[in-house]
Design goal:
The protein is 34% helix and 17% strand. The chain is an alpha/beta fold and 256 residues long. The strands form four sheets. Strands 2-1-4-6-7-8 form a six-stranded parallel β-sheet. Helix 1 runs parallel beside helix 5 (129-151). The two termini are 19 Å apart.
């Protein structure tokens, strides 16, 4: 079983390859939360994979909420993969702690560097097209290696990219981000540019957008994954006063 959360498609691309390599089901965490059962009994030979993007150098709140609410039985091997723009700080340490609360252990952990999608910090910038290509090509080489280790059920593996000051990024900057910037209140629409195509509604993984022109529900469900912002075909959706470009994976044929 591969459980995943993805906004702009980076993590879905990784999770899909893991699902295909292990011949195990792939399940969307937002979809599972909407359905509400959240009890999983794994087959005797089934692995449990958790794939998520790093949000502010931490696991996304929706992933932590899912793990808090879900129950698992007959688990013998757990691995996790996070995607990140450049580094992931101590995101995996936090995930380990969340799993530990359920009496579960993480046997292998990986980070896959992918093109940046965060436009909420002034010091973060999207990758150039050339940098996007380099990161995706490196990931294309790395993911099959991760798949092989997972199929072998390798233990004690940590292939992570924590960065130079992981504590500061995770527990200071990341803590601020996840406390104050995980909100839909900063999104707004340029109604002159909006073509009312509804793509933002379709792409929102938590169903936080309604109406045309789009309106955010302000019901606390937003994960700030920025899918609505990045997938908008006319760049009519904005976040705060940031003037940034757009990115989603992939404009090359592996589209979610």
């Amino acid at each position: 079983m591969v459980l995943y959360f993805s906004g702009t498609g980076n993590t879905f691309w990784v999770a899909k390859q893991l699902s295909e390599a292990t011949n195990e089901a792939i399940l969307s965490i937002p979809d599972e939360l909407r359905e509400g059962t959240l009890h999983y009994t794994l087959k005797d030979d089934e692995r449990l994979g958790i794939c998520f993007p790093t949000h502010g150098w931490q696991p996304p709140r929706i992933v932590r909420d899912f793990l808090h609410r879900a129950t698992f039985e007959n688990v013998h091997y757990i691995y996790a993969v996070t995607t990140c723009g450049d580094d992931m700080g101590y995101a995996m340490r936090i995930l380990r702690k969340e799993l530990g609360k359920k009496g579960l252990s993480l046997y292998a952990a990986f980070a896959v560097v992918m093109p940046e999608s965060n436009v909420c910090f002034s010091f973060l910038h999207l990758d150039t097209p050339e940098s996007e290509e380099r990161k995706i090509e490196a990931a294309r080489q790395q993911v099959p290696h991760i798949c092989e280790l997972v199929k072998q059920e390798a233990t004690g593996v940590e292939e992570l990219v924590k960065g130079p000051i992981p504590f500061t990024y995770t527990y200071i900057i990341g803590a601020y981000y996840n406390k104050h910037l995980i909100t839909d209140k900063k999104f707004w629409v340029d109604t002159d540019a909006c073509i009312q195509c509804g793509r933002c509604i379709k792409r929102c993984p938590v169903g936080d957008i309604e109406g045309l022109p789009p309106r955010w529900k302000h019901d606390g469900s937003c994960t700030n994954c920025l899918a609505c912002y990045h997938y908008c075909p006319t760049h009519a959706i904005h976040w705060g006063n940031m003037q940034r470009g757009q990115y989603y994976f992939n404009r090359r044929g592996d589209q979610k």
